[in-house]
Design a protein that fits this description.
Elements: H1 2-22, H2 25-38, H3 43-55, H4 59-72, H5 77-89, H6 93-106, H7 111-123, H8 127-140, H9 145-157, H10 161-174, H11 179-191, H12 195-208, H13 212-224, H14 228-241, H15 245-261, H16 265-278, H17 283-295, H18 299-312, H19 317-329, H20 333-340, E1 370-374, H21 379-393, E2 398-402, H22 408-414, E3 421-424, E4 435-438, H23 443-446, H24 465-475, E5 481-486, H25 506-509, E6 514-518, H26 525-535, H27 551-559, E7 563-567, H28 570-577, E8 582-586, E9 609-613, H29 621-636
Helix pairs in contact: 1-2, 2-3, 3-4, 5-6, 5-7, 6-7, 7-8, 7-9, 8-9, 9-10, 9-11, 10-11, 11-12, 12-13, 13-14, 14-15, 15-16, 15-17, 16-17, 17-18, 18-19, 19-20, 21-28, 24-27
């Protein structure tokens, strides 16, 4: 009788297993419900029954069955792996890791357990451990495409793009139709600025399935290659094909930005309005529209759209930073400086903020403390924010100011009246200071209203007087005036939009009674030769001065001039800080930096600067004519 029952149980177990293999879970479950009464301590039956209950969503009962199976036989790697996956899917990676470790202990070559542990380690941001887990999974099962795929994802995450590409290559070798592998490899190539290869991969992913995310990425790569027609076509494709309102709205918005690049601003604004109407709950179109309004100096309207964008996306630090520029330009300083603090949280920030265990300074009410002020952004920004530095130095504290090494000699001379400051180009020892602060953050303490600018030191910087006289003698001008001239910015982001050609200034350089001294940094030999050949005018050059690196000597050269004409660049900041009479030519809106204001003809930051503003896009004729008229009046009246 016992033998007969045993055969019946064995048959039922085999039947249930066959149903499981065929995916007929209900039939298998029905058999296990009977078997559990007959063989309640059979570990394999409990394991299979528990796995079915888990798949059917009967979680509590499933866990009870699986845990009971493990009590009878703890060395069941697959069951431990299943339990680990259960906790991982529930959002409890730490508990899941405990089960994966037990599975690996039972079976040290269990590729699935290593793979799943890698997933869990990624979730808790233990990247090195995750990489090791995926490598182990691949070692024991080289055809596990998801282990290769996830490892590639991690390498993308940490910026190891060559390693990521290798893993995606492996995935594609295993499965040539895995569209997400093509897409992610395209992301790797785009991060490496290899946009042609990225486009090839995005296209392969699109050919498999025309997903909006794939087309968005290809369009962005076309933008990076300045292939604006192709980018517009891709965004138009999303608009035509994509039923999702969010994607359609973003496609209109992104297409608007590309149209702006090709100067189709009216159509760009229409696209942005359409994006807003399609989905009023997405912030990006509001921000883009605010930028378009800024282009036309419709700044109060732009503020309204910035505020709406922030209402929808209050944690978007790039948005907050961009709004801060408008607020500061409009002289809404208190709000502007508070928003400006978001700059350090912007993704893909080009400058890394100081990392220190010492606290950031929150108030200048402290006394007898050692405070590190560290500079940010470019040389011009160092000088600009230094106009606020004096207010800090007047407090009863000691200061270390870290600045560009090219400025150190000039600053030591200019701030020698302050005995509580030293200027260095770097500080590695944290024991030297109690608090730290970025120089751009001084504004929120000392520049919250227009009248606060009246406190600044004038001149801020002092050139070497003896060397200035030497340069005056070297210039040996027989004309009435000597004018320093500079016409270009080397800013990588928008320098071209605030730069002129030397030829643009030909009418000014042709004025009699003025000699023009070259203050421009960078290699301009070819341009100056072509200018001389065409117009017969030659700039005076001080070849012993490197206008890019010898900033102290450049300051002396600026002071050797009677006045300066310049675009928005380091020369403008230096001349303004030296309190040299300066005529500054700035673009209409694009390329105009916030600290030059909106419509004012003078600068709060540098009182000696008079501003001439373009009145239209890419038009220098009007400000140059206005400057010509003024110079003619001042020279010949």
């Amino acid at each position: 009788m016992v033998s007969k029952n045993k055969k019946k149980i064995t048959k039922s177990l085999n039947e249930a297993l066959i149903f499981c293999q065929k995916g007929q879970l209900i039939e298998a479950r029905s058999i296990y419900q009977k078997l559990i009464r007959a063989i309640p301590m059979n570990d394999q039956m409990l394991a299979n029954f528990g796995t079915i209950e888990l798949q059917m969503g009967n979680i509590e009962y499933a866990i009870e069955l699986l845990e009971k199976s493990l009590l009878i036989n703890p060395n069941q790697a697959n069951i431990l792996n299943n339990l680990g996956n259960y906790y991982l899917d529930r959002g409890d990676p730490k508990s899941s890791i405990n089960y994966f470790d037990k599975a690996i202990s039972c079976d040290p070559k269990n590729a699935n357990a290593f793979y799943n542990k890698g997933r869990a380690m990624t979730l808790i941001n233990k990247i090195d451990e995750a990489i090791n887990c995926y490598r182990n999974s691949i070692e024991f099962s080289s055809e596990n495409k998801m282990a290769h795929f996830n490892l590639g994802f991690i390498f993308n995450l940490v910026g190891q793009y060559d390693d990521a590409i290798f893993q995606y290559d492996e995935v594609i070798n295993i499965d040539g139709k895995f569209m997400n592998a093509f897409y992610n490899r395209g992301i790797s190539y785009s991060k490496q600025k290899n946009h042609k290869k990225a486009i090839e991969d995005f296209t392969k992913a699109i050919d498999i399935e025309s997903k909006a995310i794939f087309i968005f990425s290809r369009a962005k790569s076309f933008e990076d290659l300045k292939k604006y027609t192709e980018a517009i076509l891709d965004y138009s494709k999303i608009i035509a094909l994509e039923p999702d309102i969010d994607d359609k709205s973003l496609a209109y918005c992104r297409r608007a930005k590309v149209k702006d690049e090709i100067r189709d601003i009216d159509d760009a604004m229409l696209d942005t309005q359409t994006a807003i109407n399609l989905d009023p709950k997405i912030s990006e179109p509001y921000e883009v529209y605010a930028h378009f309004l800024k282009k036309f100096n419709r700044n109060e309207e732009a503020r309204t759209f910035f505020k709406k964008a922030i209402e929808l996306d209050p944690e978007n630090n790039q948005l907050l930073r961009n709004f801060s520029y408008l607020e500061l330009a409009l002289e809404n300083y208190r709000n502007g400086w508070q928003l400006f603090e978001s700059r350090w949280k912007v993704k893909d920030l080009k400058q890394i903020p100081l990392t220190s265990t010492k606290p950031k300074l929150k108030s200048f009410e402290v006394k007898n403390k050692k405070i590190l002020i560290w500079c940010e952004q470019g040389l011009g920004d160092h000088i600009l924010y230094s106009t606020i530095l004096v207010d800090a130095l007047k407090t009863k504290n000691e200061f270390i100011v870290v600045i560009d090494k090219r400025l150190i000699d000039l600053y030591k001379r200019s701030f020698k009246e302050f005995k509580n400051v030293c200027f260095l180009d770097r500080v590695d020892n944290e024991d030297l200071y109690d608090f730290h602060l970025s120089i751009g953050s001084l504004g929120k303490f000392f520049r919250n209203a227009k009248q606060d600018f009246l406190k600044q030191k004038i001149p801020l910087l002092i050139s070497d007087k003896e060397y200035t006289e030497v340069l005056k003698n070297k210039i040996k001008s027989e004309k009435k005036y000597v004018c320093g001239i500079s016409w270009m910015s080397k800013n990588l982001d928008f320098g071209d939009r605030k730069s002129m050609c030397l030829e643009d200034l030909q009418s000014i350089i042709s004025l009699p009674d003025i000699d023009f001294v070259d203050l421009q940094y960078g290699d301009t030999k070819k341009e100056k030769k072509e200018f001389k050949d065409k117009f017969g005018h030659e700039l005076i050059e001080m070849t012993e001065i490197d206008n890019f690196n010898d900033i102290s000597k450049l300051a002396a050269l600026i002071n050797a001039c009677d006045f300066v004409i310049t675009t928005s660049n380091v020369t403008a900041h230096l001349a303004g800080a030296l309190n040299k009479k300066t005529y500054l030519i700035v673009p209409f809106t694009e390329g105009k930096i916030w600290y030059w204001g909106i419509n004012e003809d003078s600068s709060l930051w540098y009182p000696s600067i008079k501003i001439f503003r373009s009145e239209d896009f890419e038009d220098w004729k009007n400000p140059i004519k206005n400057l010509m008229d003024l110079l003619s009046q001042e020279i010949y009246s």
